[in-house]
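Supplementary notes (optional reading)

For those who missed the lab, this is the record we used. Protein: Uu.00g073320.m01.CDS01. Length: 140 residues.
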Amino acid sequence: MHSLLHAVLASAALVGPVAVWAKAEQIRAVSDPIFHLYLQAYPEDPTIPVMGPEASSEYYTIAGTIQSTNSSAYLDIAGADTTSYKTLSFSNGSSAATSAWALEGDTIITSTSSDYGRQLNFLACQMTDNGERYAEREDL
């Protein structure tokens, strides 16, 4: 079983104006321990979302769904976590499995009316069985 690195996007922010959801923006963390790291797909497995440097960050449109303009992948909530945070994954299907995304100011949440309720905490990076992160610390 994989142990999980709790990389919280609780205070994730859009880089740039937030009034226009259809405009592609970067998504970054604004609190420790992942302060100013950006949401992107892990290069060796593009279904795994990780937080990494701005230079390799992706751009996303947010309109109920979150879709990468780099790869067209959708950011989805994976599984039915009963924890206070929700695991994320990228899917490359023709539609998103999660359509509950919303903005609260510049913070990404799941909407109160969704099956998830209002959520602010998401798991952005998974660890291997031996405890190593998929992305090395210096790459983040």
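If you only remember one thing from this example: Residues 1-13, 15-20, 127-140 have pLDDT under 50 and may be disordered.
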